[in-house]
Design a protein that fits this description.
It is a single chain. By secondary structure, the chain is mainly alpha-helical. Helices cover about 60% and strands about 0% of the residues. It is globular. The protein starts with a helix and ends in a 5-residue tail after the last helix.
Length: about 160
Amino acid sequence: MGDGKKLKKILDAQQKSVRWLSKETTISPTTLYSIIQKDTAIRFDFALRIANVLNVEVSDICSDSALQAEDWSDESRITLPELPHGFDKVLDENRIKTYLKNSLYPLMEMFGKNNLPKLDEHLTNYYQLTDEGRRDVDQFINAQLQIKKDPKRAKDVKTIKKW
């Protein structure tokens, strides 16, 4: 069973329509209908949004999910697109894989994979802001950390290796 059939089965079980899912995820209905009708693979970023809205695991609808990788030491499980010219000196594949393995994946395990679509939305919105807007967001987050930081979460996050 391909990703499209899995998605259709979940939509039917939850009595949800493709149009409803489109509105909730901002993925075009044409794209969703195509995935279902052709039973094609779902892009991972779309799968994150869909899983969040339908309250299911990404692996329930996305067969190519990076989250299914049990053994993260097998670097071949993560395939990245070719980086634009010049970026290979700053961000090579190994560095990105190390970041995913050591930082992002442990955060997902600690705080839930279903939060990834929201994080993706925040990052996307953040990078659409002007430099001044991003500085404002950074200042706001720092101010919130001064008054609303959760000590247990902060302690847990500090255990995660970075790059």
